[in-house]
Amino acid sequence: ENNIENSDEETLAALENPDFYEGDILLDNEDRFAIQNDKNLWPQGIIPYTIDPELANVSFLIRSAMKHIEEKTCIRFKKRTSEEHFVRIYLGERLEESF
Predict the structure, then answer these.
(1) What is the pLDDT of residues 75-84, one digit of tens each?
(2) What is the β-pairing status of strands 46-51 and 86-89?
(3) Residue 65 belongs to what domain range?
(4) What is the pLDDT of residues 40-55, one digit of tens each?
C-alpha cells in the first residue's frame, strides 16, 4: 500500500510544490489567477484586521499564521485603524467578513 506515511521525502516535497495545482498539475501563469476581477481584491493586497480580546491568549498563534501567509504570498496584514472593510477574528462558529 502506498500512502503518505510511506512516501519518501522527495515525493512529499513534490506534493508540496507551490507551482503545482492539486499536487501534480503545472499551471501556466494565466491559469494561476484565482480572481479575475480586481474589485474582489483587497487594495494593494493589504488586509486590515482586528482580533477580539477574548482571543488574547491565542493571538500570537493568529499572528504567526498571518506571518506564514505573508511569507508565502503577496498578501499583507495590518491592524485595523479606521478602515470600513476589514476582517474580524473572533471566537464563533464561522468566519465572517465586515463589508
Answers:
(1) 999 999 999 9
(2) parallel
(3) 37-99
(4) 788 999 999 999 999 9
